[in-house]
């Protein structure tokens, strides 16, 4: 069953271990990412997100799954089956939706 998500809120779906999970960029997710990547502005965060390692992607996915209402720890995500291309596309889509000028 495909999980409902709210596109107007900027939610996107990503298959994690065969189950659709919501990702959402929230203020809390942004604050978590600023702290994790030791940056002090959204501009710096944007630059930092442009050069993600696989470990960084786990941090981003953890923040965005929490923003989507289904938090997953880094350990859970590291052990999960996630297509890296799908993860990168979903993260990009979530950020585009969050900062889309309405």
Estimate the global geometry from the Cα principal axes.
Answer: globular
For the largest beta-sheet, the strand count, sense and barrel status come to: 2 strands, antiparallel
Quaternary organisation of the protein chains: single chain
* Mean pLDDT over the full residue set: 91
Domain count: the total is 1
Structural class by SSE content: mainly alpha
Question: Based on DSSP secondary structure assignment, what is the total number of beta strands?
Answer: 2
Secondary structure tally, helices: 5
Q: How many angstroms does the end-to-end distance come to? A: 30 Å
Strand order of the largest sheet: 1-2
Integer-rounded radius of gyration: 13 Å
Order of helices and strands: EEHHHHH
- Poorly predicted ranges: none
Percent helix, as a range, is: 40-55%
Residue fraction in strands: 5-15%
Question: Descriptors for this entry?
Answer:
single chain, 102 residues, mainly alpha, 2 strands, globular
Topology:
Blueprint: E1 12-16, E2 19-23, H1 27-36, H2 42-49, H3 54-67, H4 74-79, H5 84-98
Antiparallel strand pairs: 1-2
């Amino acid at each position: 069953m495909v999980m409902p998500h709210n596109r107007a809120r900027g939610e996107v779906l990503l298959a994690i271990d065969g189950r659709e999970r919501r990702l959402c960029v929230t203020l809390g997710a942004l604050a978590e990412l600023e702290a994790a990547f030791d940056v002090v502005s959204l501009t710096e965060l944007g630059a930092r997100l442009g050069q993600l390692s696989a470990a960084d992607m786990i941090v981003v996915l953890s923040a965005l799954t929490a923003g989507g209402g289904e938090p997953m720890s880094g350990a859970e995500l590291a052990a999960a089956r996630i297509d890296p291309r799908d993860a990168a596309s979903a993260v990009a889509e979530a950020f585009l939706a969050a900062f889309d000028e309405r």
